[in-house]
UniProtKB/TrEMBL annotation:
Signal sequence interval, chain numbering: none
Gene3D superfamilies referenced in this protein's UniProt entry, alphabetically: lambda repressor-like DNA-binding domains (1.10.260.40)
Protein name: Transcriptional regulator
SUPFAM superfamilies the record matches: lambda repressor-like DNA-binding domains
CDD domains assigned to the protein according to its UniProt record, in alphabetical order: HTH_XRE (cd00093)
Alphabetical list of PANTHER family matching this protein: HTH-TYPE TRANSCRIPTIONAL REGULATOR, METHYLPHOSPHONATE SYNTHASE
Organism whose genome encodes this protein: Komagataeibacter oboediens
């Protein structure tokens, strides 16, 4: 895959392999300070002992494995990982601090919206029955919001989904496609799509590449005890609203169609 935006900072960061060696030394020091064996640490982190040996020897580590160890030792990622890409401040212009009163109003509107959607489904259902239209197969609900975007202790199985959702959030806030971010990150579109879906466990180097492609610090992407839950939820809601804006055209079309149907019914 060819790119035209030069060598990445992430490439330089991982070129010598020193970062992995540093991580291995930190894990070793923490483990021995607690008088834990590699076998004991492996059990706590739910990893194979050979993985612990590999990491302490300075070999590459994946996001999920590193996160499992950070959780066991209660280490803040900022204490052992370099920042990489500049601190993500390009989204600072977004109005992320909504008042509690406004948020309550918004949530009430959501309740009203749910009632309106149900009525709309009933209308469309009755029209379909009247003209013997075939049933449209039920679409699976979007599962982006089945998990919180903020770190929660003990939820290792959700970590990759959380990480993938965060990539989607920052990509949406930039108005960028997956293809554009894949190109900027020097990763394939297939890989990025699988990572966004929580179906691939990326290497730490890939995490840095994606962070650089998104122009945010890795600290915003890697779930951990350092998470600012309020900020992440605000970013998630903002990204959701931006995605929902694209549906307004379809809503306008639907409004027009219902108006025509009403005219027909009254003649």
């Amino acid at each position: 895959m060819s790119h035209d935006n030069g060598k990445m900072q992430a490439e330089a960061l991982f070129a010598s392999g020193q970062l992995y060696k540093d991580i291995g030394e930190i894990i070793y020091d923490r483990r021995t300070a607690l008088d834990w064996t590699q076998v004991h640490l492996a059990k706590l982190a739910r990893l194979n002992v050979s993985v612990i040996r590999s990491i302490e020897a300075g070999r590459p580590v994946s996001l999920e494995t590193l996160s499992a160890l950070l959780r066991v030792f209660e280490i803040d990622p900022r204490d052992i990982l370099p920042q990489g890409a500049p601190e993500g401040t390009w989204f600072a212009h977004l109005d992320l601090v909504a008042s509690a009163t406004q948020l309550k109003k918004t949530m009430k509107q959501c309740s009203d919206y749910n009632l309106a959607i149900q009525k709309l489904r009933d209308i469309i259902g009755n029209i379909s029955k009247t003209f013997n239209l075939p049933e449209i197969p039920a679409r699976l609900p979007i599962d982006h919001y089945s998990h919180s975007v903020a770190f929660t202790s003990g939820e290792r199985q959700d970590l990759l989904e959380i990480f993938g959702r965060r990539i989607q959030i920052f990509r949406t806030l930039q108005g960028a496609t997956a293809s554009q971010i894949a190109h900027k990150s020097h990763v394939s579109l297939t890989s990025l799509s699988l990572i966004e879906a929580g179906l691939r466990n990326p290497s730490l180097e890939t995490v840095y590449r994606i962070a650089e492609g998104l122009s945010v610090s890795v600290y915003y992407l890697i779930p951990g005890i350092h998470d600012d839950a309020d900020l992440l939820r605000s970013l998630d809601m903002t990204a959701w609203a931006m995605s929902a804006q694209s549906q307004l055209e379809a809503l306008a079309d639907l409004e027009s169609i219902i108006g025509h149907l009403d005219d027909i019914a009254n003649h």
